[in-house]
């Protein structure tokens, strides 16, 4: 059984930066991604990455964040810069054991999800 544990969320002022981490345990992982969601809204892709390092980003975050991974540590990171008030959300890590050639997947392709880490951007 794979477990995903996110960390790095917190309170930051608008324009600031945060780095999220997600450590996967239990199995080597293929595609991974970061999603975000506020209550009552659909889960939204932030960034995704294949096991080989191919990446994809949402339009809202493109240019302001970078997803990366360390396969030896089964870990992915999300560096977010120039954060805006609208970036306030719970951020979730998602992972699949499968290796797809494309980075962007439907959420249903991820078998494992973390518990989420809160990111709050203040003015």
- Give me the Rg, rounded: 13 Å
Overall average pLDDT: 95
Low-pLDDT parts are none
Helix content: under 10%
Number of strands: 11
Structure classification? mainly beta
In DSSP terms, counting alpha (H) and pi (I) runs of 4 or more, how many helices?
0
Measured distance between first and last alpha carbons: 40 Å
Order of helices and strands: EEEEEEEEEEE
Biggest sheet details: 7 strands, mixed
DSSP strand (E) fraction? over 45%
Molecular shape: globular
Explain what you see:
With 123 residues, the protein is mostly beta strands. 0% of the residues lie in helices and 48% in strands. It has strands at residues 3-7, 10-13, 18-25, 32-37, 44-49, 55-57, 65-70, 75-80, 89-95, 112-113, 117-122. The strands form 2 sheets. Strands 2, 4, 5, 6, 9, 10 and 11 form a 7-stranded mixed beta sheet that branches.
Question: Could you write a compact summary of the structure shown?
Answer:
The chain is mainly beta and 123 residues long. The protein is 0% helix and 48% strand.
Task: Summarize the topology.
Layout (H helix, E strand, L loop, with lengths): L2 E5 L2 E4 L4 E8 L6 E6 L6 E6 L5 E3 L7 E6 L4 E6 L8 E7 L16 E2 L3 E6 L1
Parallel strand pairs: 2-11
Antiparallel strand pairs: 1-3, 3-8, 4-5, 4-9, 5-6, 7-8, 9-10, 9-11
């Amino acid at each position: 059984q794979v477990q995903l544990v996110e960390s790095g969320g917190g309170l930051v002022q608008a324009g600031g930066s945060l780095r999220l981490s997600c450590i996967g345990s239990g199995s080597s992982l293929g595609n991974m991604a970061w999603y975000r969601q506020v209550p009552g809204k659909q889960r939204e892709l932030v960034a995704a990455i294949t096991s080989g390092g191919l990446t994809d980003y949402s339009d809202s975050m493109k240019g302001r964040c970078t997803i990366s991974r360390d396969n030896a540590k089964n870990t992915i990171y999300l560096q977010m810069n120039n954060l805006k008030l609208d970036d306030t959300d719970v951020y979730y890590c998602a992972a699949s054991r499968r290796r797809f050639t494309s980075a962007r997947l439907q959420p249903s392709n991820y078998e494992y999800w973390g518990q989420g880490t809160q990111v709050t951007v203040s003015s």
